[in-house]
Amino acid sequence: MDTNQSDDYDKYRIRVPHYRYDFRISNVTHITPRLDFRGAFEAMSDPYFTRDFFSGLYSSNPQPATYASLEQQFDHFSASLYVRPKVNSFYSTVERLPGFRLDVHRQQILNTNFYYQGDLSTDYLKMDWVKFDYDTKNLPNQKLKNYSSFRLDTTHFLYFPLRFDWLTLVPRAGLKLTAYSNTSKKKVSSQDLATLFQAANLQNTTGMILNNYDDKGGAKLRFAGEIGFEASTKIYNSWQNVRSSFLALDGLRHVIRPYINYTLIPKPTVDRDHLYYFDDIDRIDEQNFVRLGLENRLQTRNGNIIREYLSMENYWDLHAKEQDGFNRIAATMGLFDDEMLDDLEALLIQADLGVNAATTVMDQIREQIRKTGDASSEAVLNHLRESLLQIIGPQMKLELRPGEPVVLLLVGVNGTGKTTTAGKLCARLNQEGHSVILGAADTFRAAAIEQLKAWGERTHTPVIAQQPGSDPAAVVFDTLHAAKARQANVVILDTAGRLHNKKNLMDELAKIRRIISREMPEARCETLLVIDATTGQNAVMQARAFHEVTEVTGLIVTKLDGNAKGGVAVAVTQETGLPLYLAGLGEKADDLQDFDPSLFVESLLPSSTGPGDA
Q: Is residue 441 domain-shared with residue 333, that is, in the same domain?
């Protein structure tokens, strides 16, 4: 495989960092002999720390475990009140009210070498639609209701420490439980939903953000086990001559503690994508990692009592590079039995091919095995590759002849990236020598007009627009006549996002098609459905509904560079029989590329050199 081809494959793949650094500074101030103030500030490199609940997308802002607490010490446990900062995501801000925590200190079990340690904490979380409150400020009587949730976390661990002269080994096993209350007492109101679908957002259209949302906000309960071990040692340096009656100390001690820590967290009982809010305990896609760490602790001495005054910890997480399902199967290098074929079918469904497409593919594979008698991994994956390519069909390009009058009508639900795609198409066609004009027919979302104008300025393309709330059909009419007057041969129309089950909005698209046929009958009209690769099987229903109403002629799939398996492209082409022209692979103007079925299928499967990291 040549390097350039490999790079093309990688455009469809998801890269998750397998290492992370963490820099933490913490402080303990002793108010009374048993009452402490604790604080910590943490900076980390991991950009995938939180996951936005409503959008199903990873937040771009790390959420560090910065906190402050008042802690009361007892003989065998401690109780504390703590506060943490607000959690900011792209669509909302989660406000964490002061929480309560109970820590059971490490206790020896009877006279054995086993020790127990546990904790219990509670949080009350309020979610504020800050972005949408801003976006809907100009909409009359449209104030979004905020939602709240009560959360309980508890962990329980068993330790078996083994101490040697300079080394301590601590095997451990534990159980974590997380419980969430209802996010709301009743379903999200239809008024709130309507407001969300109208909300303007300069960076991304709304509407599909509630794709993963549980309307009832039902309570969730999740278990996650953990096993691991830690090896560490300590290096001391003491200053006995540092004394202060005011600080009640008669010495200082610096402790350096290097350690190596292995952690394995099996898959929890509840998918975290449907929990209300995600915190440190929820980082379960880091299921198998080794941590190399270094602690620096500054401790004070008062007689025989040693207290920690300041600590700094820095660590790196080295993650096992987990193979995906296809690669695990390919790595077996054995024969496929019925159970492995069933596993492969499940993997295809998980990759968003859907039941129909997955069943079709597996029926063809089983038939090939029956005919040839070859059930090797190599043969099965070759059959899989051929079946997927047969469903998708040959590569079809959106080709425009020089000077040919063409109208490109972009349709789709909210949030699929139609406006951005319109801008990228404009840049692409201008570069090919076409004369292009843009029509801002998304009049429901004020930011869409401004966003399209920004693309027009960027690509030196005229944009025909009216005031927000205007009749989209009137914008289409004006754009077509402006194209004739300016002798532009390509018209790109950006339409408003609409739900596929809203009849009046879908009828509006049919009206726009009639205007195009009447006002520019000589033009070839391409109605391009823009689908979001991250929406899964919803895209199939959308494609079916839009195709029935607007006679869709082709597909554009966006966000293949995001956290999506992209198999929905196979399902949609099977369902509609439509050509898939273009793929959106990023935010840059040149990130809209011809959809290549061969490269796309290879991105789903292991590389020819063996198990890869697709």
A: no
pLDDT in tens, 326-347: 555 555 545 677 777 877 887 7
- Asked whether residue 85 is assigned to any structural domain, the reply reads yes
Total domains in the fold of the chain: 3
* Residues 447, 449, 452, 456, Cα dihedral to 10°: -130
Tokens of 470: 């205007």
Q: Among residues 562, 549, 608, which one has the least CA distance to residue 420? A: 562
Q: What is the pTM assigned to this prediction?
A: 0.53
Q: Are residues 141 and 288 in the same domain?
A: yes
Q: What is the residue type of 41? A: F
Q: Which domain does 219 fall in, by range?
A: 19-319
Question: Helix, strand, coil: what percent of the chain each, to 5?
Answer: 30, 35, 35
Neighbours of 54 (CB within 10 A): 20
Are 174 and 194 in contact by the 8 Å Cβ rule? The answer is: no
- How far apart (Å, rounded) are the C-alpha atoms in residues 578 and 393? 9
Q: Are residues 376 and 273 in the same domain?
A: no
Place of tokens 């007057």: 485
Share the mean pLDDT of the chain: 74
Does position 481 have pLDDT exceeding 80, yes or no? yes
Determine phi and psi for 449, rounding to 5 degrees: -65, -45
36's tokens: 């402490």
Q: Distance (Å, rounded) from C-alpha 295 to C-alpha 511? A: 67
**What's the CATH number where 579 sits?**
3.40.50.300
Residue 360 and residue 336: Cα distance in Å, rounded? Answer: 18
Under the banding of pLDDT at 50, 70 and 90, the label for residue 11 is: very low
Question: Tens digits of per-residue pLDDT, 136-184?
Answer: 444 444 455 566 777 888 999 999 999 998 899 999 999 888 887 765 5
CB burial class (10 A; 0-12, 13-18, 19+) of residue 475? buried
Distance CA 422, CA 496 (A): 12
Which residues on adjacent β-strands are paired with residue 302?
305
* Measured distance CA(568)–CA(560) in Å, rounded: 11
* 376 and 457 share one domain: no
Three-state DSSP state, 333 = coil
Please state, in angstroms and rounded to a whole number, the distance separating the CA atoms of residues 399 and 247: 79
Q: Give Cβ neighbours of residue 431 (< 8 Å, ≥ 6 apart).
A: none
